[in-house]
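Problem 12. The chain below contains 272 residues. Write out its predicted structure in token notation.
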Amino acid sequence: MNQKYNVYLVSDSTGETLDRIFLSLKSQFSNFQYEKKEFAFVRTEQQIDKIIKECNNFENSLILYTIVETRLAKYISKQSTQNNVPCFGVLGNLILSFSKLLNQKAIHKPSAQHVLDDDYYKRIEAIQFTMSHDDGKKIGDIDDADVILLGVSRTSKTPTSIYLANRGFKTINIPLVLDQKIPESLKLNNKACVVGLVADPDRLADIRRNRVAIMKDHKLKEYTDLEFIRKEIYDSKILFKKNNWPIIDVTRRSVEETAASILKIIEIKKYK
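Solution.
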């Protein structure tokens, strides 16, 4: 029987970086049983003492931390060792290696990545734009978009749009409905990167059935009909190929993977 671990994620900032690192780490171990506890904005020895004390109340506790202030990083490492709690600093060695490579002293400032600079306000503007243009709500200012996503229902258009917006890309997503024409302005657009999203019809049918079950609306028979979905996907592919729009199959792809492919397409388009 596999042991269950109590994983403590300790950060001196929001914890977002550490959470993503842990997500990547745990995905490499199929039988890793754990319970995760997150501690953000940990910046005092007293906070660390409370975490160590809690670790001692449970078996198989371990700590992952991102603390950039040297004194505090040494403290959590020392206290963990004294209490026999496995402890792993995620950024320490990397910062030290970069410091040597660049021949610069690191500033060791918590939340240094969260600054209110031009990039930050660009992301906020992109998020506001994307939310107001979700699901084809607004297309009058289509020329202001950086990315336009097209696809039938449940092809991850909205979550992918939001992810791209968080990277600073103004994104419009437009649902494709069988026998309905797309906006003419879309065909005339030369600025934005237009991408078509498709999925395996069988997989799409399963997703839609689950959605209908949650909505408890059993009148949507055509929406979940496999032959209808196959026709939707077939017609969307024809549309994408006719307009020379790149196609991404989102079947069993995470939003992050889909977005990464779109960013690659944007990069290629930039240098054409």
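Discussion. The chain is about 45% helix and 15% strand. Students who got a different answer should revisit the alignment rule from Section 12.3.
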